[in-house]
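Hello again, I could really use a second opinion on something today. I've dropped the whole record in just underneath, so have a look.
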Amino acid sequence: MRLAVIGAGAVGRSVVELAGEHGHEVVAVADSSSAVVSDGTDGSGGAVGVDADAVVARKAERGIVGDDDPADALAADYDALVEATPTTLGDAEPGFSHVRTALERDRHVVLANKGPVAERYGDLRALAADSAGDVRFEATVGGAIPAVSTVEDIEPSHVTAVRGVLNGTANFILTRMAAEGLDYDHVLSEAQDLGVAEADPSFDVDGTDAALKCVILANVLSFGAADDPADAREFTLADASVEGIRDVPGSVLRLAAEDGRTVRLIGEATGETVRVAPRLVHENGTLAVSGTQNIVQIETTHAGRLNISGRGAGGPETASAVLGDVGRLG
């Protein structure tokens, strides 16, 4: 499949680098200020992709991916658009407009950007309903963990809840606090030094990232279980109850350990509610994953509880989910 990749951060670059291993051709790449678009053919009508190594090297050395305009990538001849720009809230722009452009051209869309799925899910479905293209978004929830596709395979009407540890930064901090008896501020500084936490960690430690993932899952459950999409409840971040980990004292973790428990930032989604907050869990329980690991628990009506764990972030990990979605479209 021919791909246009919009966004050249860690995920976008990894998609460009790994697409060939999955049998796909990247014919266009864009960042916020530049693009590179393939204009060649292989002599038999097939597109020749961009030079992945050159794109990645140019981005690292010059801060741009090419000499074309970003709009040229959206207008390129591709089968699927990979939207990997940073997540934005509210109107979810510019990601949502990129999605609209592709769907109006009857192209497929694969999202790593959470914004359009979490903040404008109804609009996204309406655009897809009027297009010959389809929309996939496995990579928006849990990196390499196949949470969305597993819910879809079971069928949302047979899933009563999805919960789990969905942010690696928050989980790393809580794990270190518990293991070393340290307070939040000390461990946050350590996480920033290691590159596990951003200079501004708010998106992760305040629970926003986990909440967006749960909102996406709630939308999948709500719309997937509805006989008529008009009857489904649409969720956005504003509908979520969110509490982060900034105010979790080290003393709470020490007291919890005396009782064989620990604290994790747990998100939960149903077709009716979204909640994210620090919760006590058994220290040897399924939800007590350590470090930057994530876990998703799926409660089902007939198959019991399913647990899926793995790396919930990272360029290659998230790109694997993106390319898995591309494969499903093919």
Remarks:
- DSSP finds 13 helices and twelve strands in the chain.
- The first helix runs from residue 10 to 18.
- The mean pLDDT is 94.
- The first strand starts at residue 2 and ends at 6.
